[in-house]
Specification:
There is one protein chain. The chain is of the alpha/beta class and about 425 residues long. The protein has a domain of about 260 residues: Alpha-Beta Barrel (TIM Barrel), CATH 3.20.20. It is about 30% helix and about 25% strand. It has 11 helices and 21 strands. Strands 3-2-7-18-19-20-21 form a 7-stranded mixed sheet, with helices on one face. A 5-stranded parallel sheet has the order 11-12-15-16-17. Strands 5-4-1-6 form a 4-stranded mixed sheet, with no helix packed on it. Helix 2 links the parallel strand 9 and strand 10. Helix 1 packs across helix 2 and helix 7 packs parallel to helix 8. The protein is globular.
Length: about 425
């Protein structure tokens, strides 16, 4: 059995930082220490060796929208970004509201073999907000996180019932916070920029109102809840207050929401159109504080590929969404100014716990643990070139931008699926 050794790196995990080589065999870490030898060697000189990353929010588009992405191409992008597991969002066609669709997504992930694909389930049938999905059947099939992402559940009574049904199953409901009656026709953040441009505005209140409602439903039911891609300063404060009161809530923020402002829409370029929309510099500052102080638990990419012709449509007709898997690490390392261990908590072990996979992802780098690892150079500079990304789509808002921090190797299930920045499958 081949013994793979990662040499010359610095291990950083929940237990701290230390200089060590890492030996992998049979899908497990078998030894961590100095000057290890093996049959297959990955050079990690100048690099951090960490638990693999976990993305709570990935749109893989398959089934139904394979012109934008497939599970194979999305998984390849994930592996190149250091992710060893991704939660596949359910807004596919058909939606992931049945065991048959969930099993299809999981099996396509297994065939790709580049990372673990974790299908999410829908909160409501067809994500239509009218009837609860069959939670029991989906939970029995291994689904842990349920969301109607792209749609917020508008009916508060239905959302209360959803939480009550979730409680005995031990599953997690994840809300896309948007009161749609406040966002009809909107294309960007409601503020001074949209006023100058004469474009319909998307108020921060649309997010904050549903977030407030669901925090109160958590208080009422005692059931944990996760909040997707928060984008406003007030949202951060609402979650901070809820946590201070001991409520079982978690939250995520995306790299684009802590790096890009609404003023980019002055170009009328739909590559900057996203849901929720890009906000202001003050919102970015609040998100960064939330990521630093533990209010926000995870960085999630909301990787949302779209076929090129759709993003070339007029701003009011183009779909929202951006690529994110291959740039998330660099933006977190280069833009947040946080200690590397905190960045890794946000990318790895915190989201692993929320996704229900902390038994195999985000684990400490020590003997006896599963070998799901990311090896990255935190000082490597590179320029984002859309054509060089693994996704079938090209809608990255960072085209031409020089960023710092890049994955060199990714080990999934004991196999090097990325070597020297190149996917092996």
């Amino acid at each position: 059995m081949t013994r793979l050794v990662i040499t010359g790196g610095t291990v950083v995990d929940q237990q701290g930082e230390r200089r060590a080589d890492v030996a992998v065999q049979g899908g497990q870490i078998v030894e961590v220490g100095p000057d290890l030898a093996g049959d297959d060697v990955l050079d990690a000189t100048g690099c951090i060796v960490s638990p693999g990353f976990v993305d709570l929010h990935t749109h893989l588009r398959e089934p139904g929208k394979e012109e934008a992405e497939t599970i194979e191409t999305g998984s390849r992008a994930a592996a190149l970004g250091g992710f060893t597991a991704v939660v596949a969002m359910p807004n596919t066609d058909p939606a992931q509201d049945s065991v048959a669709v969930v099993e299809f997504v999981r099996e396509q992930g297994r065939r790709a073999g580049l990372c673990e694909v974790l299908p999410s389930g829908c909160i409501t049938v067809g994500r239509n907000g009218e009837q609860l999905a069959p939670y029991g059947e989906l939970a029995a099939a291994g689904v842990h996180l349920f969301t109607d992402d792209g749609n917020g559940v508008q009916d508060p009574q239905l959302m209360r019932r959803a939480l009550e049904y979730a409680k005995p199953l031990g599953i997690v409901l994840a809300q896309h916070c948007e009161v749609t009656s406040l966002t009809k026709g909107a294309v960007m953040h409601e503020g001074s920029c949209c006023s100058r441009l004469g474009l319909p505005g998307w108020p921060a209140l649309a997010e904050e109102l549903m977030l407030f409602r669901d925090i109160e439903l958590v208080r009422l039911t005692g059931v944990p809840m996760h909040f997707l891609h928060l984008s406003t300063a007030r949202s951060v404060e609402l979650v901070r207050q809820a946590k201070a009161e001991g409520l079982p809530v978690t939250a995520e923020a995306t790299p684009h929401h802590f790096t890009l402002t609404d003023e980019l829409l002055e170009s009328y370029d739909a590559v900057y159109k996203v849901n929720p929309p890009l906000r202001t510099a003050d919102d970015i500052a609040a998100l960064k504080i939330g990521l630093a102080d533990g209010t926000i638990d995870a960085i999630a990419t909301d990787h949302a590929p779209h076929a090129p012709h759709t993003k070339e449509a007029p701003l009011d007709q183009a779909p929202p969404g951006m690529l994110g898997l291959e740039t998330a690490l660099a933006l977190a390392v280069g833009e947040l100014g946080l200690p590397i261990q905190r960045v890794l908590a946000l990318l790895s072990w915190n989201p692993a716990a929320i996704a229900g996979v902390a038994d195999r992802h985000g684990r400490p780098v020590q003997a006896g643990e599963p070998a799901n690892l990311a090896v990255f150079d935190p000082a490597a500079e590179w320029t984002v070139v859309p054509a060089n990304l693994a996704s079938k789509s090209r809608n990255t808002p960072y085209a031409g931008r020089t960023v710092t921090g890049r994955v060199r190797h990714t080990v999934f299930g004991g196999t090097a699926v990325v070597r020297d920045g190149v996917a092996t499958r």
